[in-house]
User: Which sequence fits this backbone?
């Protein structure tokens, strides 16, 4: 039996302290989408995201509704794109970023992350290409990768990890 | 509508209800919110497990 104190304390957390589930992240391995043919890589990535993340938002919403605790952010984390697109040029990596953004919008998540390079132990060609791609613009035209890192102003943003 | 207690404008009524699995929770929650709004009340709907996991070991 729940006590009155327990119930009121929980309501205070919900009302005054914004008790919620801040983020649910779905991790997607894209390593087997790697390749040197841009259109092939884009198609495989888009298909992978749509297939595996298509139900992320509806499921989070359903769980939030069931428990009465909102899930504020739903996001996807993919394998570092510097690895997936190691064979691509900076311009092609920008196209890959567009693909990620479009897929994120399609499945309605708040973030998609992984347009990143793991450079703590040095940089390979793919890492350099990815960093060179960052200053280039992709839609929305006024948002750079670094600027869209935080917070989620746009529905789908590509965030970076360095 | 309950308006008793020492402060009639500041009361909490707590109900524990069983909701059949077949009920659409989203629709139920919306109906309850609409009704609460008509009565000028605030309503908060949570699963029992939320209260338990927050307070029981």
Assistant:
């Amino acid at each position: 039996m729940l006590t009155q104190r327990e119930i009121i304390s929980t309501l205070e957390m919900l009302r005054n302290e914004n008790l919620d589930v801040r983020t649910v992240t779905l991790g997607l391995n894209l390593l087997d989408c790697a390749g040197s043919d841009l259109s092939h890589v884009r198609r495989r990535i888009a298909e992978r995201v749509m297939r595996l993340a298509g139900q992320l938002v509806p499921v989070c919403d359903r769980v939030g509704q069931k428990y009465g605790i909102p899930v504020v952010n739903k996001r996807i984390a993919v394998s570092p794109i510097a690895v997936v697109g190691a064979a691509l040029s900076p311009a092609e990596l920008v196209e890959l970023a567009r693909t990620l953004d479009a897929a994120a919008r399609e499945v309605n998540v708040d973030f998609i992350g992984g347009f990143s390079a793991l450079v703590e132990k040095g940089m390979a060609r793919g890492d350099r290409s990815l960093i060179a791609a960052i200053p280039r613009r992709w839609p929305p035209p006024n948002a750079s990768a670094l600027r869209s890192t935080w917070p989620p102003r746009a529905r789908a943003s590509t965030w970076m990890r360095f | 509508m309950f308006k008793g207690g020492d402060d009639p404008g500041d009361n909490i009524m707590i109900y524990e209800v069983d909701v059949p699995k077949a009920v659409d929770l989203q629709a139920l929650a919306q109906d309850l919110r609409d009704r609460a709004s008509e009565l000028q009340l605030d309503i908060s709907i949570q699963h029992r497990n939320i209260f338990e996991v927050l307070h029981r070991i």
